[in-house]
Every structure is written in C-alpha cells, then in structure tokens.
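$ ./design --mode recover --in tokens.txt
reading tokens...
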C-alpha cells in the first residue's frame, strides 16, 4: 500500500543509539553502498530517510532510496526477479503473501536470523516457506476505525456510537449538517483504502476475526453469508448517500479536515498526514460490533540476485532494530513492530492510546495483503466497481471474488 504520510512532529531522536549484533551479519565494509526501494513518498519519504541517516551513521553504509508506487513496485520486482535481476539491494514489500511467493520461487535471501519472534509483534511463520523466513518486519500500520475531529463532534453535539443502530443515527445526523458533502469519506489509491473499510464490515459480523483468518487460510468461502451481509451493509450506506465522491486518499484528507467528509476509515498514519493541521484534534471509534483490528506490516526483503548481500542484511538489521524504528516513531504516525521501542517515543496521546487499544482487541492480518495477487487485484477492482455502481447485485461480486480467492489459496 502506498501511504503519503505527512510530517507533523519533527523531533530529534534522543540519546546515543547502540545497535546490537551488527557485526554478525557479514562485516560489510564502510565503503559499501546499497539501494532500497519502497512505496514511501513525499514527507513519508523524509521520515524514512531520517531512519536511513541514523543507520548510515551507525553502520558506515551508504544507502540510496528510490520510491515507487505500489503497482510499479510489485510488477517491476516480479519482472526483474524472473530475469535474475535485483530491483534494489533491499525491497520493502507491503504484502506477506507476495513475500511467501517470492521466497518459494527462490527470489529472496533468508532473513530469519536477523530478528527474534519474542521481540516483535509478529511471527516468523507469517513470511516463512518450508521453515525459511524471507523478510524482516518494520513499522506496523494499525487500521482502527473511523477518524473524526472532536471539535466537529462538540460543535454539533455528536457522540461516538455504541452500537450499529447508533452508528446509522450518527450518519443521518451528520448528513443533515450544512456544508457536509457526505458523512463517510471514500479514499482511493489503487483500491486499497476501500478494502480497509470493507474488511471492517467483515470483521463486525459474527466471529468476524476468525472469519477473516479463515478466508486467508482458505478455510472459508467468500460467499459465506457473513461476507454477503458485510457487502449488503456497505451497499445500504451507499444507497443512503452516506459515502462521498471517490477521491485520491491523500486529497480526501483535505475534505476530511474541512469537515466536508467528517468520518474517514484510515490507519495509524493519519495523525502525521499533512492535511491534519492539529493532530490533537483527532480521535477515532471502531465500527460498532467490531472486536478486532487489522494490522499490516512493512516487510524488508533482500533479493537473491543482489551482489551486496552482506551490506543489505546489515542495513535491514539496523533499520528494524528498536533504535531504528524509534527514529520514525518519534516523528509521528508510526507504530513500531519492535516491542522494545519505549512508549515515551510517542509524542501524541492518540498514538499511545491506539497502541494500548490494539493490545486489548484481536489483531488480524490485512485480508488482501495476506493473500496477495490474484485475489488482491480482483478485490480492489470489484470494490471500485461497487463504489461506481452501488446498486449492483452483490451476489455476483462475492461469487467472482470467491473463485479468485480459491485460486489464490491454491497457489
């Protein structure tokens, strides 16, 4: 997924950082230069480059960074790997499904020795094939629910809903407020923001967190009546006119902040996005009925075709270390996957509150990220079609997606 997270807080990483175990990954020379490619752009790129600066100072490596959009990253790396070429010395993949496929195809170097499961918020099995672990975890994006501005709620005497009926009543109230285009913002990148809100409606169904896991594992069908209900609930909101015009997810933040689309289902990067002029005027609520939160991790991989394996491994170990992740955590809008980053690194109460709530609910993988293509591409396409024609029958949608789901799991 491509995020355009804007900087809000600019702080200096406190204290001298001492990274552990760097000498064990190959003894890269101080003259080694490596390249990294990922989907971070604009000010989010600046956030990552702050991490790069820290790692260069700690390791003596020279690291260059090339951002790519999600589609380009996924397609170009696949083409390069099939030709035996490394797109970059380090490739950051947003989907564990793709990591497993690349690992199984022999395209990636094993990285399991660079991180301990006990020290991170994920398991080796997530990116393992036949016992080999092919990626290392960096930041963890949490997708908690609908963000809103407390100042807007206070001005119009609105309250967070405690059940789904109250949620519908809230949407009706917001819809009647002057200058509101629609209560719910519709963000679009390649289709992924629509997938996030759709997954929330799946998760709010009976035993939704297990349903999501079963879909990923191939133990449930996409034609399950609970999935159908989730799509029908989304359709009902569309037909009531509660979803806004579809816009680029970054531009949609501007409409959100202007209170034209006051509720926006987005992730933990929201407080640091550029359009958010005052992150203290932010809060969120989970979709009523939801007892789980989606968590998505950025996975660092090293292509098997790089000529700088040792240096790439050294860079990855330093980047994903507690000190490396703390650099971005202090800059805002970032949730570390390292369990050893201090809570003091969070400058905003909302970020600290979000991580605390994540500890109290079920965390589930992102559905389409975990599965990867061909399901992910078809999921995004079908959702874009639903947003364009919300009165269409949902049954053919779920049937089509189930066919692709079974193909994806079968692979």
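writing sequence...
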């Amino acid at each position: 997924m491509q995020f355009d997270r804007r900087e809000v807080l600019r702080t200096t990483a406190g204290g001298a950082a001492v990274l552990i175990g760097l000498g064990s990954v190959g003894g890269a020379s101080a003259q080694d230069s490596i390249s990294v490619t990922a989907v971070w752009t604009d000010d989010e790129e600046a956030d990552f480059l702050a991490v790069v600066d820290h790692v260069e100072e700690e390791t003596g490596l020279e690291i260059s960074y090339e951002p790519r959009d999600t589609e380009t990253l996924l397609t170009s790396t696949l083409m390069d790997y099939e030709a035996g070429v490394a797109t970059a010395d380090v490739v950051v993949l947003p989907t564990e499904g793709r990591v497993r496929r690349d690992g199984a195809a022999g395209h990636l170097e094993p990285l399991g020795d660079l991180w301990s499961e006990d020290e991170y918020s994920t398991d080796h099995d997530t990116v393992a094939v036949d016992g080999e672990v092919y990626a290392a975890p960096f930041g963890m994006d949490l997708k908690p629910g609908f963000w809103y501005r407390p100042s807007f709620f206070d001005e119009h005497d609105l309250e967070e809903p405690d059940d789904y009926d109250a949620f519908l009543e809230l949407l009706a109230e917001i819809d009647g407020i002057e200058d509101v285009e629609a209560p719910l913002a519709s963000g679009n990148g390649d289709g992924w923001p629509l997938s996030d809100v759709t997954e929330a409606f799946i998760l709010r169904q009976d035993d939704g967190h297990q349903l999501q896991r079963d879909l990923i594992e191939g133990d449930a069908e996409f034609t399950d009546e609970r999935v159908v209900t989730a799509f029908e609930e989304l359709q009902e909101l569309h037909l009531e006119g509660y979803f806004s015009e579809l816009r680029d997810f970054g531009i949609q933040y501007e409409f959100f902040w202007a209170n034209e689309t006051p509720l926006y289902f987005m992730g933990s990067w929201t407080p640091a996005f550029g359009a958010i002029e005052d992150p203290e005027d932010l809060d969120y609520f989970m979709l009523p009925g939801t007892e789980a939160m989606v968590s998505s991790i950025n996975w660092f991989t090293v292509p098997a075709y790089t000529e700088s394996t040792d240096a790439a491994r050294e860079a990855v170990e330093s980047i994903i270390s507690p000190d490396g992740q703390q650099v971005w955590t202090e800059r805002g809008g970032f949730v570390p996957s390292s369990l050893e980053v201090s809570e003091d690194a969070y400058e905003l109460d909302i970020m600290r509150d979000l991580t605390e709530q994540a500890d109290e609910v079920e965390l589930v993988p992102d559905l389409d990220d975990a599965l990867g293509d061909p399901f992910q591409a078809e999921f995004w396409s079908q959702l874009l079609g639903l947003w364009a024609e919300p009165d269409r029958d949902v049954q053919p949608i779920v049937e089509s997606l189930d066919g692709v789901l079974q193909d994806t799991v079968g692979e």
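exit 0
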